[in-house]
Design goal:
- The chain is an alpha+beta fold.
- The chain has one domain: N-terminal domain of TfIIb, CATH 2.20.25.
- The chain has 7 helices and 4 strands; from the N terminus they run βααβαααββαα.
- It has helices at about 35-45, 55, 65-80, 90-95, 100-110, 145-155, 160-165; strands spanning about 20-30, 60, 110-115, 125.
- The chain has a 4-stranded mixed beta sheet, sandwiched between helices.
- A hairpin with a 6-residue loop joins β3 (about 110-115) and β4 (about 125).
- The longest helix is centred in the first third of the chain and has 13 residues, at about 35-45.
- About 25% of the residues are buried.
- The mean pLDDT is about 90.
Length: about 170
């Protein structure tokens, strides 16, 4: 999963947006995407208001890669003053000097393992429990509880306290 996806994901159960994203393990950085392609993508996303500053603020990183963690914190500061109702022109002016950096973080960095949590209904959804980088956002009746328990048990100690209390392990 790439960070840009966090901008558009909503809870499949209660439709709440934004979700909280906890990055447990970073993946590779995809350098195959060229600057011109990424610039078109981010300009399009900003124009269509697909960039969600509140969702960007809901990213928590617990991976031990200090360089990527610092990049994400810096990334979050660029969007700190904006809400869902931003004006695309104003956002572009603010980030234009750091556009290459922001494109790099949003579109090139992969998340292998993580958790998405709905702040409203408190459901959580694993990222990478079956295939690295793939969020599994299934309704309760379609989830594999054994696989969910195995995934969350493996990562439970790294989770932030508020997320730990909301996660119910089932047997």
């Amino acid at each position: 999963m790439r960070l840009w996806l966090q901008n558009i994901l909503a809870c499949p159960i209660c439709k709440t947006h934004p979700l909280q994203l906890v990055v447990l393990k970073w993946g590779d950085v995809d350098s195959s995407l060229k600057g011109d392609e990424l610039k078109k993508m981010i300009l399009n996303d900003i124009e269509k208001r697909l960039i969600s500053p509140p969702s960007i603020q809901n990213i928590i990183v617990v991976d031990e890669n200090e360089l990527l963690n610092e990049k994400v914190e810096r990334f979050k500061t660029f969007f700190n003053d904006f809400t869902l109702e931003y004006e695309p022109e104003i956002l572009m002016r603010k980030i234009s000097s750091e556009l290459e950096f922001i494109m790099d973080v949003m579109y090139r960095v992969n998340i292998n393992k993580g958790v998405l949590k709905c702040p409203e209904c408190k459901r959580w959804f694993p990222i990478g429990s079956s295939i690295d980088g793939i969020p599994e956002m299934l309704p309760d009746n379609l989830r594999d509880k054994i696989k969910d328990n195995k995934f969350i048990s493996l990562w439970f100690d790294k989770l932030p306290g508020d997320l730990k209390k909301d996660i119910r392990l089932e047997c």
